[in-house]
Amino acid sequence: MQYEEHVVMKHYFKMMTDMIVLCATLAISLSFWIISMTASTYYGTLQPVSPWRWLFSILVPLSLASHGLKRKSLDYSGALGGMLVGFVLTMANMSFFTSLLTFFLTSSKLTKWKGAVKKKMDAEYKEGGQRNWMQVFCNGGVPTELALLYMIEVGPGEMPVDFGKQYTATWMCLSLLGALSCSTGDTWASEVGPVLSRSPPRLITTWQVVPAGTNGGVTPVGLVASLLGGVTVGVAYFITQLLFVKDLSLAAPQWPIVVYGGMAGLLGSMLDSVLGAIMQYSGYDESIGKVVNCESKTAKWICGNQSWTTTPSICSPPS
Fold this sequence. Notes:
Elements: H1 2-43, H2 51-70, H3 76-92, H4 94-112, H5 115-121, H6 133-154, H7 167-196, E1 202-203, E2 217-218, H8 220-244, H9 256-279, E3 282-285, E4 290-292, E5 299-303, H10 312-315
Antiparallel strand pairs: 1-2, 3-4, 3-5
GO cellular component, one term: membrane
Protein name: Transmembrane protein 19
Family: Belongs to the TMEM19 family.
């Protein structure tokens, strides 16, 4: 009986918490809308943002961050960072939001995919691949800055990617798409390549065979995965353009966005591998049979420089 009452009370408190969060979200979105209306009236040149866009920009990132926290894709700091990044990108442009959403969902799924296999190769593998605030801002910091600059340039809203009509804003859109495609391509390569590749990875700087999990190691499967990851983000951006942008028939063709996303994913992943091979230490620890990212008596150097990687999260001894 007491157990049943405990379960009922638990569900009741959860329901009340959800209602409080929803009411707070509505209040915040309406407050921002009032501020937006006031600013547009005062300056006379700003287009006011609809209350529905405010609500969507707050509620959806909040829901995604909560979902990522429950599924252990994010820790608490990562959830807070993700909410901030999601809010800015969603407010700026729906195409930015769907690109970010594609990166987050696909990367989270692939990080958990074949976890048992990855755990055997990676000494620092986390169950669920929880991302903290630093990892969130490493992937979302540049897109967030670009989204803010975009809103300063043209205001919140969707627009065609067209250099003839909005030269500066178009560069911002492509830069943001490139950043997210790069992050997606790199994640896909690192999560898919070591698992599916039948040939050992090769160090991108010297082309020598290296153990799986080495920073800077690439495989044909990983390179294809990085290309497909970028294409996926490009497709998400392109479809959103078709759904939300008006008068696309008067603008430049939008389909090259998909090709651009794929190339950004591939080239960004390769650049990350070059930087990883040069700047991040990799060594093979014979005592555990895994590649590690910090020097030790049992680790044999493969590539990289320890002096570039001195943060506690990287140099903690493997368990």
